[in-house]
Automatic annotation (TrEMBL):
Protein name in the entry: OTU domain-containing protein 6B
GO molecular-function terms, A-Z: cysteine-type deubiquitinase activity
Region (Disordered): 1-89
A single GO BP: protein deubiquitination
Domain OTU: start-end pairs: 129-296
Extent of Polar residues compositional bias: 48-61
Pfam families found in the cross-reference section: OTU
Record field: compositional bias (Basic and acidic residues): 1-14, 62-89
Entries under InterPro entries matching the protein: OTU_dom (IPR003323), Papain-like_cys_pep_sf (IPR038765), Peptidase_C85-like (IPR050704)
SUPFAM superfamilies: Cysteine proteinases
Source organism: Wallemia ichthyophaga (strain EXF-994 / CBS 113033)
């Protein structure tokens, strides 16, 4: 600032001071005029300096607080939007469930049948399978397995020497008899009627553990009647023919693997061979039903 003022002062002197070759100016500027001029310059510079905003430590701290509050508000806003979206999604699910629950029963069953068919067809396409329909009667589980055994020429069967549902019933019953200790703990008298040897003291609903006589009666039912088969029979047949059985269905786990090594299907579904069945609860009016899922290239009639 001092240098700038000295420079200006010198220029003023040059203007108002006579050169050596000039005559003295009649009304020369005296020192008091110079002092007034520089006083005015100093005052103007001081005013400009005072008008320039400067940030004190407290002001800087306040600005940081404002920025932090703005960031917190932004985060809060994002959280509020996420929460709102979640609530809307939950409400949408509730409304859909309510609407479905209040559909007329026939419409609801038709909708579930369509969903079931789509799920099974999609899985068939993924694994190069096609559905072969089995007669919907009490033998459908065994007949579907017999069709798979025939098409894949397993055991001694082939398209020229076809397996029947009775063959598979006998296979299941014989394996159960030979491995009674493995299966008896999972069967109770609830699987029998009083006429077949179930207890008659009020425990029919939940049943009591079977004794060996009751278990043998159960095996006779599996082999010689039209009683529907279930998980026990699927497991017995899987072990008897040494092939895993895949059951494709509509429920949460769309493919259940029975037999085979644990986790084999989950880790390598494309590399697992075996029996493929579809399990239906809606597509057929009689209720639960099994179909055979043949290989797409299969030409068995």
């Amino acid at each position: 600032m001092v240098r700038k003022r000295d420079s200006i002062k010198n220029k003023v002197k040059e203007v108002f001071s006579p050169s050596p070759t000039q005559e003295p100016v009649e009304h020369a500027v005296d020192d008091s005029l110079e002092d007034d001029l520089f006083a005015q310059l100093d005052a103007k510079e001081a005013e400009q300096t005072s008008n320039t905003p400067s940030k004190t430590p407290s002001q800087t701290h306040s600005m940081r607080e404002v920025e932090a509050e703005a960031e917190a508000e932004q985060k809060k806003s994002r959280k509020a939007r996420r929460e709102e979206k979640r609530l809307l999604e939950e409400e949408s699910i509730r409304q859909a469930a309510f609407a479905e629950a209040n559909l007329p029963e026939n419409e609801k069953l038709a909708k579930e049948a369509t969903e079931e068919e789509k799920i099974i067809i999609d899985i068939c396409n993924k694994h190069a399978r096609k559905m072969h329909e089995i007669s919907p009667d009490g033998h459908c589980l065994y007949a579907a397995i017999a069709d798979q055994v025939t098409c894949d020429s397993l055991l001694e069967y082939s398209p020229q020497f076809q397996a029947t549902y009775q063959d598979m019933r006998s296979t299941a019953a014989n394996y159960l008899r030979e491995h009674a200790d493995d299966f008896m703990p999972f069967l109770t008298t609830a699987n029998l009627t009083p006429a077949d040897g179930a207890d008659s003291d009020g425990h029919e609903a939940e049943g009591t553990p079977m004794d060996i006589a009751q278990f043998n009666k159960y095996c006779e039912i599996v082999e010689n009647t039209g009683e529907w088969g279930g998980h026990i029979e699927l497991l017995a047949i899987s072990r008897a023919i040494n092939k895993p059985i895949h059951v494709v269905q509509r429920s949460h786990h769309n493919v259940i693997l029975i037999g085979g090594r644990e986790g084999e299907f989950e880790h390598n579904p494309e590399g697992v061979d075996g029996i493929w069945l579809s399990f239906h609860t809606r597509m057929y009016g009689l209720g639960e039903h099994y179909n055979s899922l043949r290989r797409k290239e299969d030409t068995t009639s």
